[in-house]
Amino acid sequence: MQSYYIETYGCQMNAHDSEKIAGILDTMGLRAAEKEQADIILFNTCCVREHAEKRVFGNLGALQKLKTEKPNLVVAVCGCMMQQTEVRERLYHRFPFVDLIIGTNALHMLPQLLERVFCGERVLFTQGIDDEIAEDLPTKRAPGVAASVSIMHGCNNFCTYCIVPYVRGRERSRQPERIISEIQALAEQGYSEVLLLGQNVNSYGNNLEDMDFSKLLRMVNDIDGIKRIRFMTSHPKDLSSGLIAAMAGLPKICSHLHLPVQSGSTNILKLMNRGYTREEYLALTRELRLALPNIELTTDIIVGFPGETEADFEETLSIIDEVGFSAAFTFMFSPRTGTAAANLPEQVSQATKKNRLQQLNTLQTLQTRKTNERYLGRVEEVLVDGFDQRTKLLYGKLSCFKTVYFPGAFDMIGSYVGVFIEKTHNSSLLGLLEQKVQ
Ligand code: SF4
User: Fold this and answer.
1) pTM of the full predicted structure?
2) C-alpha–C-alpha distance, residues 438 and 428, integer Å
3) 149-179, pLDDT tens digit by residue?
4) How far is the centre of ligand 1, averaged over its atoms, from the C-alpha of 164 (Å)?
């Protein structure tokens, strides 16, 4: 029996694609193995950040030695980086030992393409970025009680810094019946938390008749066995009052929303083509907190976007306090070839970007600590994810997405328990088991 190893880069969408790749390979009779032992090594790449591209090229280069030692080793590369013609060509010529290159929309072709590789062919296969995504692919999910389900593919927004619309194509929503039957099957297998995935998840249904994201949430909420519903990534401009009302009225929706603001400055938001102003974003967060008083908001922020002045950056700092984000994923702007922002004037120096990132992270750490302290002395429901070898504690998530560590028995993994929150750390909570919920 042949074996495979998948190395995944990038976001949760890519991680979920890797679950599908693993499902396809298992169905072909292959088994997962460690990298050094595997007969097939597959890199599932991402091109959203410059850093990811450098890592892929570096890690592929490091495979040269293994390939020399094991000439029958098959090296394959897929993922959104392979939808960039220039990068794909560069990779193809620089690493002649790569046997298979495959685009994002062609995963269902993997068995046939691998057969050609096994027959000695070097294969490069991509499809149009707007092609239909194949349904019903076998999926090998990580063990646990939380599962990811992609509900749509692509993005129509063209934020000026982002490569996604160029490599993942326009928005295509999956049919609701298919999503619902996939989640029903997951519930039957014991999954109780579901994460609905899309590049712009709350515009779900734009290309479908009489369907929108609120309706889909109601349908998922009705599925027996599902206790928690999460979704990401939401775009502020598509967060309607109707959707906020639906979230407030559906008991299984988690009290957490990841709502990327990207900048606190309206000037920069305009340059980013985000489609909202600082004031509109703030109004949304107020509306959210009125409708869902316990909601925790997390966000993404880019510092050093071209043209960002000190005054713009100050506005980003102030929005952290004003909204009270419980966490922020912060990045320095890195120009992606092919995007509009790569050619904007007034690029910010690396030193300024670094300095701003540091200031932002310091402020957000304080803010996160503040939001953590709200939980002290409370008993919260935790879905137990696993056991941390370092601390010898169980860990799991609250509905609001905060992570809690607490002492407990292995057999609690996968169940919901009540935990008394005793202490807080910078990014997590520490507690004591109160009761088993189910
Ligand atoms: S919403 Fe903007 S940042 Fe998000 S995937 Fe679409 S273009 Fe990229």
Assistant:
1) 0.92
2) 24
3) 999 999 999 999 999 999 888 999 999 999 9
4) 6
